[in-house]
Specification:
alpha+beta, Jelly Rolls, two-stranded antiparallel sheet
Length: 166
């Protein structure tokens, strides 16, 4: 059977569109908004982004949750019972300011890394004790605070002056 006229053209257009919808986009082509949206942490629902700490030529990449709002920052990692070795939480401080963190309702021990507005580490409160309400202060104004598992900073040789990018 042979198709003729406008019905044939419309049929060919419909078939072409159907086939195009089934094909996978080539590398470099635009992705849908859902495909480029940031990952979300399954427990907190916060966005998860890469964060890099650089010392000299050595770099270490973490996947961190971003706590931006006041309520997100107040809760932080409270009540969390575990975290992966290369996971953490970043608390952006906009505008930069003096900061002090505590471990109230925080189950897992943490390293709390205070980052200056120049993205260099100012100081580290290493091995913060779970449930402690003792304030752990920054050594100046911070542009962000990073929480990692306790001992992770020492294990990786992370020190004041190292660069942090997120």
């Amino acid at each position: 059977m042979r198709l003729t006229g406008s019905w044939a053209v419309q049929s060919l257009i419909a078939i072409t569109l159907a086939l195009a919808a089934c094909t996978k986009p080539a590398d470099g082509e635009a992705r849908t908004a859902a495909a480029v949206a940031p990952d979300r942490h399954p427990e907190s629902g916060l966005p998860v982004i890469p964060l890099t700490i650089t010392r000299g030529g050595a770099r270490h990449v973490f996947r961190v949750e971003v706590a931006r709002s006041g309520p997100e920052q107040e809760k932080g990692l409270m009540f969390r019972t575990g975290m992966g070795a290369d996971e953490g939480m970043i608390f952006p401080m906009e505008p930069p300011r003096e900061a002090a963190f505590w471990m109230k309702n925080t189950v897992i021990p943490l390293d709390i890394i205070f980052i200056g507005s120049d993205r260099r580490i100012l100081n580290i409160a290493a091995d913060a004790v779970p449930y402690s309400e003792k304030p752990l202060p920054s050594a100046g104004r911070v542009g962000g605070v990073l929480e990692l598992n306790a001992g992770r900073a020492a294990a990786l040789g992370i020190r004041p002056g190292d660069r942090v990018d997120w």
